[in-house]
Amino acid sequence: MNSLLDLLNSDIDPDFAKMSLPTLLPEISKIINEIGYLNLDYKIETTFSSNRSWAPICADIDHINIKFEELNYTINIPSYFEFKERLTNDQPFSIIRWTHGLWDHLYTLDVIRKLLNNKLKNSSASDDVILALANRICAILFPKIGAFANGFSSEIINDLENLSFSHNVYHSVAFKGYPTQDEKIFNVKKVLPNHLGRLALFTKYFKPQNPIYDSNFYKRWVISGLGKEIPDLIRNRNVILIANDLFNDLNCRWNLKRSFTHIQIDRGMSQRFRNQILERCREAINRTIMPNSLSPIVLFQAGSLAPWLISRLYKDYPNAFYIDMGQALNFWFMDKAELLRAHWMQVYKPVLLSHMQSNS
User: Is the full-model pTM beyond 0.90?
Assistant: First the structure.
């Protein structure tokens, strides 16, 4: 392998490519350490007990303020009662969640892209080629991260560059995995340059005047106890679930009365099959949208695949509800050991169990 651009050859063995990277790009190890990718301290600064005590009121706050350089953002907390009212009145909406993990991936990609811009400034490589090469390097370094599946990150970036906001299309963001009593932007003891880099990337796509919401709102509702009645709100609707096999009996757990379609995805790397999954979603929605019937629910527990799917499905099928609950859906599956490993569930486990018992 003679140059960085050779990495774009799909025939190259990934292990060989990874071995070659330090020679082709000596700065890569230092850059990855500075990024802090997958090494962020997501452990909460406050104690478990203070967060658990705060749980009953964690959904009472109506906004969070974010300041970055001279920019001031208001991050709104969606109202559970407005959510309930819109479902009751059959007023479809989509809420797209741009979560902390996705910002980690996009920031990593952006840093490596800038490094390549400098390394290849005297070459004829276009911006698209450099982005594709950055994505390829990320896929080599982090082969189990689906966001780096071929072309996926570029499509997500394109979605972010073309955001639309309306009364029926909401966008939400988060830079940590779950809400905490201190309401800090990041769950870290000290904000480092790599955290500010994530915020800088966020400001590239979102403006202070945009209506922006907190991506952790479903977890707020579940932790506070408000969310435990969500199954009652959708029980008499047709439901389509995009999630892995751990959630295949949601219809029984929620006692759903109408049709239930589970579009099963892999537990990891489902982004590789996104176009096939998208087609299956379209087929399912076509079957469930019927004249003079309630709008169907399209429910997600699909990581970064969810915003990609919702961005496309809503354009074709605006008469459905797109509800990306993410890990908040784990609440109804607390008997699954794999799901209980999530750090937020360990923090709030006694609170969640109490809600579950009161709901049984």
Answer: yes
What is the torsional sign of CA 29, 30, 35, 39? positive
Query: Are 288 and 254 within 8 A, CB to CB?
Result: no
**What is the rounded CA–CA span in Å between residue 176 and residue 230?**
24
Q: What per-residue string of b and e applies to 211-231 under the rule 16 or more CB within 10 Å gives b?
A: ebbbbbbbbbbbbbbbbbebb
Chain mean position to CA 96: 8
Per-residue pLDDT reduced to its tens digit, 295-310? 999 999 999 999 999 9
Q: How far is CA 37 from CA 66, 229, 244, 268, 300, in A?
A: 22, 37, 25, 18, 25
Please, what is the angle between helix 28-35 and helix 193-205, to 10°?
80
Cα separations (Å) of 280 from 227, 286, 309? 28, 10, 11
pLDDT in tens, 191-209: 888 899 999 999 999 999 9
Number of C-beta neighbours around residue 81 at 10 A: 9
The type of residue at 331 is F
